[in-house]
Every structure is written in C-alpha cells, then in structure tokens.
Amino acid sequence: PILGNYHDGTGQVVCKACEAGRYQDTQGEPTCKQCDYSCTAGYFHDGCGGAESGTCKPCSAGSYKGDVGT
Fold first, then answer.
1. pLDDT, the chain, mean
2. Is the pLDDT of residue 69 over 80?
3. Angle, alpha carbons 47-51-53 (nearest 5°)
4. Which of 1, 8, 2 is nearest to 30 (CA)?
5. E strands, 1-70, in order
6. pLDDT tier at 70 (50, 70, 90 boundaries)?
7. pTM for this structure?
8. Mean pLDDT of 21-29
9. Percent with pLDDT over 90 in the chain
10. Would you give the end-to-end CA distance of the chain in angstroms?
11. Are the C-beta atoms of residues 64 and 54 closer than 8 Å to each other?
12. What whole-number distance in Å separates Cα of residue 34 and Cα of residue 68?
C-alpha cells in the first residue's frame, strides 16, 4: 500500500487513489479521510489531498476570510 491510496476490496491487487477533497496518511486503510476545511477567520486551508491532510495558512496581504470553513 502507498500513502494517499486505499483498497476497499478483499484480494484487491491495485490500490485506488483518494478522490479530490480526501486524503489517506495511513497504509492499508479501506477508505480515505475527508479534508477538514474548518480554519478560523483570517486563515485558509491548503494542501489537502493524496497523503497530506493540509494545513491552515494565513490569508495574504490585501485579502481576508471572515467566516470559519471554506
């Protein structure tokens, strides 16, 4: 198994890649995890997908995000 992939069937030879908006950071799992976009105001979520859960990063100068979430 490769990080960023999952296998959902017994005897499955090839792993499947996680869909957009999902990730898997543990080997041998039957599903991918949902990305968590609940960053606080002033931050946005970046880098979720494949084997990465992503992180909250501050908005760039001249921009803002006033609500929690996407």
1. 90
2. no
3. 45
4. 8
5. 5-6, 16-17, 22-23, 33-34, 43-46, 55-58
6. low
7. 0.80
8. 94
9. 64
10. 31
11. no
12. 17
Q: Which residues pair with 6 in a beta bridge?
A: 16
Residue keyed to tokens 């609500």: 67
Q: Per this entry, what is the length of the chain?
A: 70
- Token pair, residue 39, equals 């960053």
Token pair 């990080």 in the structure block, residue: 3
Instruction: Name the one residue in this structure whose structure tokens are 């490769």.
Output: 2
Contact by Cβ (8 Å): 56, 40? yes
Place of tokens 């090839």: 14
DSSP state of 3: T
How does DSSP classify residue 60?
P
CA distance 24 to 18: 7
pLDDT digits 0-9 by tens, 35-53: 999 999 899 999 999 999 9
Handedness of CA 40, 43, 44, 50 (dihedral sign): negative
